Amino acid sequence: MPRKTLKERKEKNPTEDKENRVRSVIDSIDGTEDADDLMLRLLERLKEGEKVPSVGKYYTFVYNPKTPNIRYDSNPLVAVTEVYSWGFRGINFHWGEMRQYTWDEIAGGIYEVYSEELSDVKEIPFGKIKINN
Questions:
Q1: What are phi and psi of 100, to 5 degrees?
Q2: Does the reported pTM lie above 0.90?
């Protein structure tokens, strides 16, 4: 089978055309929004998926940890690296490091971000670092 031309590949790239689910969020940012408002806009564009993520994929979700007095990202963007019975680990793009997430502390579902959309989602300032009191 012959390889597709660059033009054909670009035409199918969701980050470059109308199939991109998150581009409208980026286009609507005016700089006055807070992180939670941007997270809500993003979640409206994504589809809530299964409760258990797949290793190697990207996800965002709302997180409320149980451990007191820790710093955490309530709106993480994560590349999942390991899944366990208690939760999962992954690289949080807002922290730039490995973090772990337990099932019971995820509020609602998880939302997959397609790899083609990742660079766009990383442009949205929806990360929210807090201290759990």
A1: -125, 150
A2: no
How many folded domains does the chain comprise? 1
pLDDT digits (tens, 9 = 90+) for 19-50: 789 999 999 899 899 999 999 999 999 999 98
Question: Which amino acid, one-letter code, is at 10?
Answer: K
Q: Is residue 81 part of a domain?
A: yes
Q: Provide the CATH number for the domain around residue 107.
A: 2.30.30
Task: With beta carbons less than 8 A apart as the criterion, state whether 21 and 46 touch.
Answer: yes
In a domain, 11, yes or no: yes
According to DSSP, the residues that pair with 73 across neighbouring strands are 129
Q: How far apart are the C-alpha atoms of 23 and 50, rounded to whole Å?
A: 23
Is residue 1 a part of any domain in this protein?
no
> DSSP for 35-97?
HHHHHHHHHHHS-B--SS--TT-EEEEEE--SSTT-EEESS-EEEEEEE-SSEEEEEETTTTE
* Owning domain of residue 92: 6-131
Q: What is the DSSP letter of 3?
A: P
